[in-house]
Amino acid sequence: PWVIAQLGQSLDGRIATESGASHYINAIEARTHLHRLRAVVDAVVVGVGTVNADDPQLTVRHVPGANPLRVVLDPRRRAVAQARVFNDGAAPTLHLVAEDGDASGGAGDVRCCAMPCAAGGFEPAAVLGWLREAGYRRVLVEGGGVTVSRFLQAGVLDRLHVMVAPMLIGSGRPGLVLPPIDTLDEAIRPASRCFACGVDTLFDLDLRAADHRGRARSGASGASA
Fold first, then answer.
1. What is the mean pLDDT of residues 127-138?
2. Residue 51: which residues within 8 A CB-CB, separation 6 or more?
3. Is residue 182's pLDDT more than 60?
4. Among residues 158, 169, 148, 145, which one has the least CA distance to residue 204?
5. Which helix (H) or strand (E) holds 83?
6. Per-residue pLDDT tens over the stretch 137-180
7. Which stretches of the chain are DSSP H helices?
8. Is residue 104 pLDDT above 60, yes or no?
9. pLDDT for res 102
10. Which residues are within 8 A (CB) of 133 and not within 5 positions of it... i.e. 6 or more apart?
């Protein structure tokens, strides 16, 4: 099992404007890198907010490779029925809803699955466990910020890619949001590497040996997505 997450953000940590506009914070080289990640995983996971705001395809287009399973986390069944992931037939889609949810409509290879859900959403470990049982062992958590933050807080990520654009937005939606800490001793300190990616900069964070100081790992039982 291998789980990686990616966020594309501005220098000041914003992934979208106040209105939700995010196309495109990062340049084409960064988007190509994201498609490479999609090409090497079995499944790509997004929250329903990303589906409704961006209507992403979540397919591999900028590089050669097979499309992964598209997984939409939608505990309260808020997904727009016209979203492309439910209708374009380009790749199989798994629509995860709470146990009292209904199957989504749409054409193509769409499967609806009900999972137990706490007040805050699905447990990240439970989502990954379901995917592993179904044979999807390499997983990309692509967005949005809330979903990536919850998977990070739960301590289930092996790696995190943060793609930073040389841009200052000054307001808007933040990337990572974790519970408050009192001192920097409590901060997550992963081993990291840095790469130029066109005009953007990629930070490759290895979370497997990160010093979480008890925050991320202790949240594994309570964080949800």
1. 97
2. 72, 74, 79, 80, 83, 85
3. yes
4. 158
5. none
6. 999 999 899 999 999 999 999 999 999 999 999 999 999 999 99
7. 28-40, 48-54, 84-87, 124-133, 145-153, 215-218
8. no
9. 54
10. none
Q: Are the beta carbons of 141 and 157 closer than 8 angstroms? A: yes
Nearest Cα to Cα of residue 95 among 126, 127, 118: 127
Can you tell me the distance from the alpha carbon of 58 to that of 87, in angstroms, rounded to the nearest whole number? Answer: 13
* Amino acid 61: pLDDT: 97
| Nearest-angstrom CA–CA distance, 134 and 208 | 24
Alpha carbon distance 79, 48 (integer Å): 6
DSSP class of 110: E
Kind of pairing, strands 173-174 and 14-16? antiparallel
What are the structure tokens assigned to 81, written together?
């029925």
Strands 93-98, 110-115: pairing kind: parallel
